[in-house]
Design a protein that fits this description.
The chain is built from four helices and no strands. It is an all-alpha fold.
Length: 137
């Protein structure tokens, strides 16, 4: 059973890191795709580039075992930050994602992503604290 959980954990890590890195790339390569999700009072290009930077950092953090815990926490935080935007989109007459069903599915997927990130977070060992060398005594 432990091998199955370890394999699942590796799949989750790979999926989330890949998702963040691809998202970062796509925010820069195809910013118009995200414009409908960004409220009109915000500068769309700046928000796209800022989101790309955040997703790039999170993706990189998830890749490295000694930084993974921070990456998973930031991933969960980012997903929670996106909730109001996705709920706002769902409540629009015509959601930017295309349909009400797609907007609902996106929220369900977001809960799932938070859940698997939490699973990986719990399986990621915290860094051991560095103890100072007490040679001054």
């Amino acid at each position: 059973m432990n091998k199955i959980l370890t394999a699942f954990n590796l799949i989750v890590i790979t999926l989330l890191a890949s998702m963040m890195l691809f998202g970062a790339y796509n925010h820069v390569a195809n910013p118009a795709f995200y414009n409908g999700f960004i409220p009109d009072f915000l500068p769309k290009l700046l928000v796209n580039y800022f989101t790309a930077l955040i997703e790039l950092i999170i993706g990189i953090l998830i890749i490295f075992p000694n930084l993974r815990r921070l990456g998973m926490l930031l991933f969960i935080g980012l997903m929670l930050t996106f909730f109001p935007v996705h709920i706002w989109d769902l409540l629009k007459e015509t959601p930017a994602i295309g349909s009400k069903e797609a907007a609902i599915a996106r929220l369900v997927v977001q809960f799932f992503l938070i859940g698997i990130a939490y699973f990986a977070l719990k399986r990621t060992k915290p860094l051991k604290s560095i103890k100072s060398d007490d040679t001054t005594k």
